[in-house]
């Protein structure tokens, strides 16, 4: 009888383990992100594989560290220096494109965007002319789309800094840290 009771308790404990999906856990609010993205007019592309010796995401515990990405469109990357080749509005749009790219990276890695508990930290790097000072206004394009999609979960700490150059002359490069369920 003892063996039976212990066996039943073990089975009950195993069935209550953390293997529950996010959608089944009533404590985690769920959103139909596919529908939300469609309503916002956002289409996610599958992320490309890195072309060097790095990965798109490194997970440690419940934190995801996303590699820096740039503003890639179907026509190629948005390139140029802010304050020289590009306006603040063009930079904002480039940062927004980068945000959509990073959401695609998250979706590809997680499968379900409901696993995003919080966007924690963003580092936005702007390819800027020496006298350009509107870095925050450019990176707002990234922050705005992240909050449009994730709501309160998307509000994050952030740095928006200017760089003398960025790889391949891309307009912005943005990396982030995300906490997951």
Structure in words:
The chain has 181 residues and is α+β, with helices and mostly antiparallel strands. The protein has one domain: 2-Layer Sandwich (60s Ribosomal Protein L30, Chain: A), CATH 3.30.1330. The chain has four helices and seven strands. The protein has helices at 2-15, 33-39, 88-110, 135-150; strands spanning 57-60, 63-69, 72-73, 76-77, 116-127, 157-163, 172-180. Strand 3 (72-73) and strand 4 (76-77) form a beta hairpin. Helix 3 runs parallel beside helix 4 (135-150). Residues 1-23 have low confidence and may be disordered.
Task: State the main characteristics.
5-stranded mixed beta sheet, 7 strands, 181 residues, alpha+beta, disordered N terminus, single chain, 60s Ribosomal Protein L30, Chain: A, two-stranded antiparallel sheet, globular
């Amino acid at each position: 009888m003892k063996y039976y009771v212990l066996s039943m308790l073990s089975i009950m404990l195993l069935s209550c383990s953390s293997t529950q999906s996010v959608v089944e856990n009533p404590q985690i609010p769920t959103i139909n992100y596919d529908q939300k993205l469609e309503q916002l007019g956002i289409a996610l592309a599958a992320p490309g594989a890195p072309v060097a010796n790095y990965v798109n995401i490194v997970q440690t515990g419940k934190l995801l560290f996303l590699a820096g990405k740039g503003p890639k469109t179907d026509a190629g990357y948005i390139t140029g220096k802010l304050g020289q080749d590009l306006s603040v509005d063009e930079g904002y749009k480039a940062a927004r494109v980068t945000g959509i790219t990073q959401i695609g990276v998250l979706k590809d890695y997680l499968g379900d965007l409901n696993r995003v508990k919080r966007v924690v930290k963003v580092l936005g790097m702007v390819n800027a002319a020496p006298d350009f000072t509107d870095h925050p206004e450019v990176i707002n394009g990234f922050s705005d789309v992240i909050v449009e999609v994730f709501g309160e979960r998307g509000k994050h700490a952030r740095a928006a800094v200017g760089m003398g150059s960025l790889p391949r002359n891309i307009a912005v490069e943005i990396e982030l840290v995300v906490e997951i369920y």
